[in-house]
């Protein structure tokens, strides 16, 4: 009787683990691989990419649109975050427009162990920013949502520029604290 | 002469005595309600730049000065500007100027920009901090019943961080923002966000109700063409003044100095 109960419990645990893995990687056949230091989001995987949800500007000017994009598999959560950000800052898919200034580079992405991810961007994100509170909100939301939508262990994101804290990107949004994901600027449906 | 007789004689000669004409005394003017208007950017910070080269910093300064002039003609409201020329100010310097004397409203003027040239219209922003403002919490209605009364606040709980000063004014600021959106909607285009709430750094340290008005999108050719016209600038300034006056009349803002 006890063996049967243990077998049932084991099956439940395996099913839950499988479900969590599928949720983490979207349509990718395997979860992102792993594990550096305290990173615990992922387990070994045979595939070389994940399918991430990224956010670009709506060509109609209403806000952000979500697109599913293949991103190289990272060896750790930090590496995966950096790969996601590289894709988020690359040429926008057809029908969308860039919301992060062209030329902006990802200098680093790292975690603090409390659920906060730090995105360190190059100075172009400020010096080439066109200004306006709307464009500024789209820039920040695209970066924050790209990370939090694809890395379940990251609950909030702090934006740094050239490794330092900055007041704002273009004079409007206060960057002194981390941001929670914000899908209020996202319009339409997620498309491949 | 007795003291009583002397006093009667003095009173009879005094112009202030019974039956005498009172000299005209200049009535002291009613104290003016102070509105702080903050033209965004300035100096090396040009702000957004339109396709024709119009710069946000110059545009918003022009509208701010028009608003100041209109208020002077209207009477009852004194507009203070955080800058009246093309100078660079930090956001903390602007808040310090605003907080240096009492005011009923802070209006930060900006022009917007979008990665899409299709986005257009006026938008109004209010501050949203890390946590809901006390006023918002108190205003939340209970299911099936009226809104609960505000909880008593101890003196120590009233301490407010400098960079979160706006959090205690969000309710009044939101009332003004809604009026502004209605006014702009009636007179022209309103942008996709209409009224938006965000951790707006130009407002966060301001210790009075504060709104950020995006006057239009310099990335949109129609908006840009309109914004360079004197008629549009005057109309925008008049709209803000009208809303301030209406808010004072309705009690949404104090009718005199805070």
Give structural notes.
The complex is a heterodimer of chains A (192) and B (258). Chain A has helices spanning 2-25, 77-88, 124-127, 133-150, and strands spanning 49-58, 64-72, 96-97, 106-111, 116-121, 156-161. Chain A is of the alpha+beta class and 192 residues long. Chain A has one domain (2-161). Chain A has a 3-stranded antiparallel β-sheet with strand order 2-1-3. In chain A, helix 2 (77-88) runs antiparallel to helix 4 (133-150). Chain B has a single domain (30-136, 161-250), classed as Zn-dependent exopeptidases (Aminopeptidase, 3-Layer(aba) Sandwich). Chain B contains 8 helices and 6 strands. A 6-stranded mixed β-sheet of chain B has the order 2-1-3-6-4-5. Chain B is globular. Classes of the chains: A alpha+beta (192), B alpha/beta (258). At the A-B interface, helix 4 of A face strand 3, strand 5, helix 6 and strand 6 of B.
Q: What's the short version?
A:
Helix content of chain A is 30%, strand content 20%.
* Rg calc of chain B: 24 Å
Global morphology of chain A: globular
Helical content of chain A (DSSP H or I, runs of 4+): 25-40%
Which ranges of chain A are low-confidence, i.e. pLDDT below 50, for 5 or more consecutive residues? 10-40
Instruction: Spell out the helices and strands of chain A N to C.
Output: HEEHEEEHHE
Largest sheet composition of chain A: 3 strands, antiparallel
Strand residue content of chain A = 15-25%
Structural class category of chain B = alpha/beta
Helix content of chain B: 25-40%
Overview features:
heterodimer; A: 192 residues; alpha+beta; three-stranded antiparallel β-sheet; three-stranded mixed β-sheet; 6 strands; 30% helix; globular; B: 258 residues; alpha/beta; Aminopeptidase; six-stranded mixed β-sheet; disordered N terminus
Summarize the helices and strands and which ones pair or pack.
The complex is a heterodimer of chains A (192) and B (258).
Chain A: H1 2-25, E1 49-58, E2 64-72, H2 77-88, E3 96-97, E4 106-111, E5 116-121, H3 124-127, H4 133-150, E6 156-161
Parallel strand pairs in A: 5-6
Antiparallel strand pairs in A: 1-2, 1-3, 4-5
Helix pairs in contact in A: 2-4
Chain B: H1 3-13, E1 33-39, H2 56-74, E2 77-81, H3 91-99, E3 105-112, E4 122-127, H4 134-139, H5 170-187, E5 190-198, H6 201-204, E6 210-217, H7 221-227, H8 230-250
Parallel strand pairs in B: 1-2, 1-3, 3-6, 4-5
Antiparallel strand pairs in B: 4-6
């Amino acid at each position: 009787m006890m063996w049967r109960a243990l077998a049932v419990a084991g099956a439940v645990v395996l099913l839950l683990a499988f479900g969590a893995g599928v949720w983490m990687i979207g349509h990718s056949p395997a979860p992102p691989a792993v594990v550096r230091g305290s990173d615990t989001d992922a387990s070994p995987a045979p595939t070389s990419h994940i399918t991430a949800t990224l956010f670009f500007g709506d060509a109609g000017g209403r806000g952000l649109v979500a697109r599913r994009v293949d991103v190289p598999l990272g060896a750790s959560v930090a590496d995966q975050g950096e790969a996601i950000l590289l894709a988020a800052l690359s040429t926008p898919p057809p029908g969308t427009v860039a919301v992060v200034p062209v030329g902006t580079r990802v200098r680093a992405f790292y975690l603090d162990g409390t659920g906060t991810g730090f995105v360190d961007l190059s100075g172009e994100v400020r010096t080439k920013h066109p200004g306006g509170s709307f464009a500024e909100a789209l820039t920040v939301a695209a970066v924050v949502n790209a990370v939090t939508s694809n890395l379940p262990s990251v609950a909030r994101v702090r934006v740094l520029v050239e490794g330092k804290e900055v007041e704002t990107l273009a004079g409007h949004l206060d960057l002194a604290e981390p941001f929670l994901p914000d899908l209020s600027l996202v319009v339409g449906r997620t498309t491949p | 002469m007795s003291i009583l007789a002397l006093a009667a004689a003095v009173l009879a000669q005094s112009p202030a005595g019974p039956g005498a004409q009172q000299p005209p005394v200049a009535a002291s003017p009613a104290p003016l309600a102070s509105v702080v208007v903050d033209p965004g950017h300035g100096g090396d910070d040009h702000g957004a730049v339109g396709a024709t080269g119009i710069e946000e910093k110059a545009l918003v300064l022009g509208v701010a000065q028009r608003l100041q002039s209109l208020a002077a003609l209207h009477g009852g409201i004194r507009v203070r500007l955080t800058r009246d020329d093309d100078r660079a100010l930090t956001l903390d310097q602007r808040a310090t100027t605003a907080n240096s004397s009492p005011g009923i409203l802070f209006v930060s003027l900006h022009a917007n920009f979008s990665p899409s040239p299709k986005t257009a219209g006026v938008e109004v922003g209010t501050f949203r901090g890390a946590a809901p403002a006390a006023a918002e919490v108190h205003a939340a209605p209970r299911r099936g019943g009226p809104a609960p009364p505000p909880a008593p606040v101890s003196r120590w709980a009233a301490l407010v961080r400098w960079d979160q000063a706006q959090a205690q004014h969000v309710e009044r600021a939101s009332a003004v923002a809604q009026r502004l959106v209605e006014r702009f909607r009636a007179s022209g285009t309103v942008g996709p966000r209409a009224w938006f709430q965000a951790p707006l750094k130009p407002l966060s340290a301001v210790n009075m109700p504060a709104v950020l008005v995006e006057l239009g999108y310099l990335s949109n050719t129609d908006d840009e063409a309109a914004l360079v016209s004197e008629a549009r600038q005057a109309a925008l300034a008049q709209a803000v003044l009208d809303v301030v006056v209406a808010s004072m009349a309705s009690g949404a803002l104090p009718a005199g100095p805070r």
